[in-house]
Amino acid sequence: MSFSLNAEELKKYQPNRFPFLMIDIVEDVEPGQYAKGYKNLTNNEWYFPMHFPGAPNMPGALQLEAMAQMLTVAITTQEGLSGAVTHALEHTVRFRKEVLPGDCLRIEAFIDSWRRGICKGHAFGYTNGEVACQAKMMITIPDILEQYLPKR
Q: What is the pTM for the complete model shown?
């Protein structure tokens, strides 16, 4: 069963907060499957004055973070995982175009596999209907993963 999350509801499933919360709204989430939503970018974003003066664009690391946060929502909306802490294990990312002030970065993140606290997934970020960035990601919930690690 899919549902949406407004800005306040999102905080139950995503531990990041301003200024590091890189998504505004989750329009559609199917727990354990996918999450889709967006980040509206305005001239007021804290990183635009520094990246870069006269030619502002969203840093690639923050585009990746936005995609990882959306994948985290697809994971943590599963039963019993609300508020779970996640850690990145591995990311492969490709940037295709600049993300500029005034853009709406639409993000779609999909879980490819979920086993023993490790999620393998992929995501796309779109602006103006075109792919701006994409990533393959591996994210873990350490509290679950530790149950399967060899004891020392």
A: 0.95
